[in-house]
UniProtKB/TrEMBL annotation:
<keyword id="KW-0813">Transport</keyword>
<dbReference type="GO" id="GO:0016020">
    <property type="term" value="C:membrane"/>
</dbReference>
<feature type="transmembrane region" description="Helical">
    <location>
        <begin position="12"/>
        <end position="33"/>
    </location>
</feature>
<feature type="transmembrane region" description="Helical">
    <location>
        <begin position="102"/>
        <end position="127"/>
    </location>
</feature>
<comment type="similarity">
    <text>Belongs to the purine permeases (TC 2.A.7.14) family.</text>
</comment>
<feature type="transmembrane region" description="Helical">
    <location>
        <begin position="39"/>
        <end position="57"/>
    </location>
</feature>
<keyword id="KW-0812">Transmembrane</keyword>
<feature type="transmembrane region" description="Helical">
    <location>
        <begin position="206"/>
        <end position="225"/>
    </location>
</feature>
<keyword id="KW-0472">Membrane</keyword>
<dbReference type="GO" id="GO:0015211">
    <property type="term" value="F:purine nucleoside transmembrane transporter activity"/>
</dbReference>
<dbReference type="Pfam" id="PF16913">
    <property type="entry name" value="PUNUT"/>
</dbReference>
<dbReference type="GO" id="GO:0005345">
    <property type="term" value="F:purine nucleobase transmembrane transporter activity"/>
</dbReference>
<feature type="transmembrane region" description="Helical">
    <location>
        <begin position="69"/>
        <end position="90"/>
    </location>
</feature>
<feature type="transmembrane region" description="Helical">
    <location>
        <begin position="176"/>
        <end position="197"/>
    </location>
</feature>
<feature type="transmembrane region" description="Helical">
    <location>
        <begin position="148"/>
        <end position="170"/>
    </location>
</feature>
<dbReference type="InterPro" id="IPR030182">
    <property type="entry name" value="PUP_plant"/>
</dbReference>
<protein>
    <recommendedName>
        <fullName>EamA domain-containing protein</fullName>
    </recommendedName>
</protein>
Amino acid sequence: MEAIKKKYLMLFNCILLATGLTGGPLLLRLYFIRGGKRIWLSSALGSAVGAVLLGFHSDGAVNQSNKDYYLGFFLTVGAAVTSGLLFPLVELMYIKTKQSLTYSLLIEMQIVSSVVASLFCIVGMFVNNDFKAIPREGKEYELGEVKYYVVLVAIAILWQIYFIGTAGVIFCSTSLLAGVIVAVMVPITEILAILFYHESFKSEKGIALFLSLWGFMSYFCGDYMKAKKRSSELGPGENLPPETNLQ
């Protein structure tokens, strides 16, 4: 019964991760395509500076200068490095402290990380005068002022769902699995953007999709072969020891 609960909890966190990682960037695309321009505002809502570039550098972006392009490139690389380091560091912290998985612990971690990231972005909003521009931008938004604020709130909620789901997957399994899911969901987000926003499907997007799906299948094939090998080494009546971090 305990093993079944762990599997359902793992599935639940995978769904949270996938939902947040697809919904957040898609709404950011909608925000920028329909008239939004405040980079620091969307960064604060997502609690991650680099993540907003998925929306900012969509095919719907216009009048993009070379400065914005290179800034987007380096921030994207920085966000990738930070995210790559964050997953194993979270898992390492859990192993060192030997704490059991509780959603109060996940929420506490999320509050701390979100507050720090939001404070960083708020400084940028002050420097860029975003607070004064928000009411004006809401009135000029193509979908209407009410939907403008609905989109902003939805972006914030979906990104928090993503971070909670990521932490849950790490605690239920490993940071490697969390990274694999993130990798495979990014091109899926691109496909959904093509379907909903009619963006062009360029060659680099196709390559990214292929590599992500390849890595996703390689992970599960390798895990299956490893479990099969371990099973063959066990004697009669012995069971595989659990590999999950969840206590």
